[in-house]
Amino acid sequence: MNVNAIVEWREALTRLSDQYFFDLIRMYLGAVKTPFNKQKLIESLSAFFRKQKNRDRIISCLDSFDRAMLAGVRELPSPTREGLVQLFSGTRTFPEVYERILNLEERLLIYRKNDVDNQEYAINPLLDEALKKQSPIETLVSPDSYGEPCFSPLRVSDSFLAGLYSFFLHEGASERNDGSLRKKTLNALAVTFPDFDTDGKTLPLLVASLKNLSLLCVHDGILVPDRTRWELFAQNEIAARAAYLCASVYGRLSRDA
Known about the structure:
The protein is mostly helical. It has two domains: 3-140, Arc Repressor Mutant, subunit A (Orthogonal Bundle); 158-247, no CATH class. The protein has 13 helices and four strands. Strands 1-2 form a two-stranded antiparallel sheet. The chain has a two-stranded antiparallel sheet with strand order 3-4.
């Protein structure tokens, strides 16, 4: 923990009015016994925040706006009230931001660093590490809307790749001198895999990927699969295989890659 930040936080607490200070103490520590000493109460409050179970309870109460506000306080070069209002001006009204700032102060998640007119806020240093994981900068760029999660299976499945291997092993597919597929080969591919190549463009790109990965080689004008390369390729996860195929559409990888 940053010792200087902790000292600054404690000093900020001593600047609070007595009524506000004791209201906060009662909220976290319960009734204040007399006679009391502010410094000892602040030490007790610090001990409260150091306990893991208390930090876990505080974190469990955070909502998405809390997390975004905390990220704003951490990331803005000068996290003033005006700066935070401007940061959220596209999604939150001034009253919403102002009320949430006060709420975070009352919960002692943030504090005012100084008494000047242009007050800057900082995160409670005793909670900073725990809150940092809950309020990354990504919370400031959340999507406009959320949809239902969906699953779409990869079209280039294991069975499809096995079908391509078999096709080029037995079909005797040929290509032109410029490396493009002959019409006869294109027609045979379309007939063999009718559901895959509905636009007539996908299979030629996939064949180009296979060639660039050296999974297909040309022997006497005929495209044939390289068994060793296919065996190595099959050892990858299916998502990795799909990534290799996408990446190699327009680029050739060496045989040692």
